[in-house]
Structure formats: structure tokens, C-alpha cells
Amino acid sequence: MKPAPKPAEFYQRDRLWQPPAHAPNYKTSVPRSPRQALLSLQGSMSEITGPVFGHDDIAPLDNDLLKNYAKTGDPVGERIIVHGRVLDENGRPVPKTLVEIWQANAGGRYRHKKDSYLAPIDPNFGGCGRTLTDENGFYYFRTVKPGAYPWRNWVNNWRPAHIHVSVFGTAFAQRLITQMYFEGDPLIARCPIVQTIPDPKAIEQLIAPLDMNAAIPLDSLAYKFDIVLRGRRSTLFENRLEGN
């Protein structure tokens, strides 16, 4: 009797799980999206090799956005913890992978020269952090909950509170980017970018539930956000959904 075949090393990505590149209600996708079928290119050594990241690249406060930019005190806003695991398609942890985040401050403004929203810049908040997952794929950040902000899509569109998350693979060119939203935010269902996602279950995987077990009493609430890298039910990863 022949042994059962081993499962494939990787699962193909379900294209129906991903939003279309051309989504007219998300206005900036119209000039950015291709009109012809995409080409499939064979990966080369330049994509699968290159610089890697180690512990020496991470400073002690890199994952603490409450402290890593502070000049005169703590940043303004609701203090939160964002934590979770990076997993492969079979639920196995992905250790020692670089996770980066960036976000607006509690008023909804980014520390970026092109952000002209009227909310003030917080002098004690830089809005960026990074960390390496541990041997069990765990990561965590301390930060403040970002504010919603208006954007020029239609007359009165607002982006829900969100944190951008980047995950690097084993080579410099292996990078995935997504956005994490917060449980209970009514703006999620109204966001034209979110509405481009065809499967409600895919949207659910971008929403971090409140995790009171990880909260710190009288200090910080916590939200749990697991990241699944591949497979049919992988976390949705964007392709320059906001030009980042």
C-alpha cells in the first residue's frame, strides 16, 4: 500500500478572496489599476535571497510606540496593546520574522509632510514601530489607538481607525502589507476601501477583537491580531491600496 501523499509545501492563493484592483467607488484605484491581465513572473535568486534581519537590528524600544519617540512625556490618546501570532497556512508559527507597524496618532494625523489634516501633530508620538516574532510566532506592540480621519474619496468619507502592518519573509523582497481594524468601529462597514473586499469573512480577518485577558488594568486595553501568511484563508494583504 502506497503511503499517503505529502501536502504541498505552499497553497495557491484564492484570487476570489482578494479585492479587485479596479474598484470605481474607491476613486484612486481607477488610475492606479491595470486594464490588462497581469503577467506571472518566475521568481529568481534576487527575490528569494538577500539581506536578512537579526536581533541586532531591533532596539529595545522599537515595539513601544509610547516611548520610542517621546520627548517630553507620553503621547496623547487611549493606550493599547496590539499582539498576536504570525502563522503559516497550516497554523504553524513563523519565528524570527520582522513585523513593522505605522499609524496615525490619536487625533487621526500621520507624522508625514503631506498629511494636512487639521488634527495636531503629537510631539511625543512618531507612529512607527517594529519587532521580531519569538520562537512561537508571537509579537506585540504598545501604542495609542489611532483616530479616524477624513479623506478625499467622496464628499464625506472617513477612514476607520486602523494600523498598517508589514511582515517580512526570509529575504528582503518578501514583504506583505495589510491593515488592522478595531472591533466595533462603525466606520469599517462604510469605508470604500473595505467595501472592495468581496468576502465578508476576509473583512472579519482584518478586524482585531478586544482581548481583555491581555489588557493591563488601569493602563491599557488590548487587541489580538493573528496574521496568516498563505493559503485560501490567509490574511488579506493589500497591493498599494492606499499608495503606501
UniProtKB/TrEMBL annotation:
GO terms for molecular function: ferric iron binding; protocatechuate 3,4-dioxygenase activity. Residues 1-34 are annotated as: Disordered. GO terms for biological process: 3,4-dihydroxybenzoate catabolic process. Gene3D superfamilies: Aromatic compound dioxygenase. Transmembrane segments: none annotated. Its EC number is 1.13.11.3. Keywords: Dioxygenase, Oxidoreductase. SUPFAM superfamilies: Aromatic compound dioxygenase. This is Protocatechuate 3,4-dioxygenase subunit beta. The gene is pcaH.
